[in-house]
Design brief:
Blueprint: E1 3-9, H1 14-17, H2 31-44, E2 51-55, H3 58-68, E3 75-78, H4 94-100, H5 102-110, H6 123-140, E4 144-150, H7 152-163, E5 180-185, E6 192-198, H8 200-204
Parallel strand pairs: 1-4, 2-3, 2-4
Antiparallel strand pairs: 1-5, 5-6
Helix pairs in contact: 2-3, 4-5, 6-7
């Protein structure tokens, strides 16, 4: 008996395309992001799912709704699945952050787990809330398939935790918009990553 979590990053937003940090800013999907979500929806249309969950930010919940539509199931949104809170960095590019917050950025880049972003979170706080949320999902669904739509940082934090990584290196996990990863859990302690950052549905339609 196991639960298989289909872990999805939301579709592209204008800020993604402009390489701006989003965090808790509630940025909508771009037209391209909507098409990416539809491509993944088509890919998963023949699968059987028992539930759909997402972050409560519109780029995630709207991606989840598009994927859930062929299955006729509602999407339950969870604030705990949000992206890391980038605080004063939200809306800025990496170059702009480097110019305005050089020392803070250098410290965060080397030790995100315990470095607080100005006005935002530490990665450790993200890990704590995301793990709590996913463990709650596993308790509700000890078997079957569940879709969880969230964010790049959230996915890195979760996958890195399951794999026992040094989470200060979590940025080494590449996560594309509307990509698919799969985690299987017989128990939380025995989580297995069976697919990561798979994008064939996007490549097929020229969306990556």
């Amino acid at each position: 008996m196991s639960c298989r979590i289909y872990l999805v990053r939301h579709g592209e937003t204008v800020w993604n395309a402009e390489f701006r940090f989003q965090g808790h800013s509630d940025v909508a999907l771009s037209p391209r992001g909507v098409e990416q979500a539809r491509a993944l929806s088509r890919r998963l249309s023949e699968e059987e799912f028992c539930a759909f969950y997402s972050s409560d930010l519109q780029r995630a919940i709207n991606t989840a709704r598009i994927i859930a539509e062929p299955h006729g199931l509602p999407v339950e949104s969870l604030e705990a699945l949000r992206e890391i809170n980038f605080g004063f960095w939200e809306g800025l590019t990496m170059e702009e952050i480097q110019a305005r917050y050089p020392r803070e950025l250098e410290k965060w880049w080397h030790s995100p787990l315990h470095t607080r972003i100005p006005g935002g979170e530490t990665l450790a706080e993200v890990v704590e809330r995301v793990i709590l949320a996913v463990r709650g999902i596993l308790e509700k669904h000890p078997c079957g398939q569940v879709v969880v739509v969230c964010h790049g940082g959230t996915i890195r934090a979760l996958v890195g935790s399951v794999l026992g990584m040094d989470l200060n290196q979590y940025w080494r996990l590449g996560v594309n918009n509307a990509c698919l990863s799969i985690l299987e859990f017989s128990t939380w302690e025995r989580g297995i990553l069976t697919l990561f950052n798979e994008c064939s549905h996007l490549k097929k339609e020229g969306l990556i």
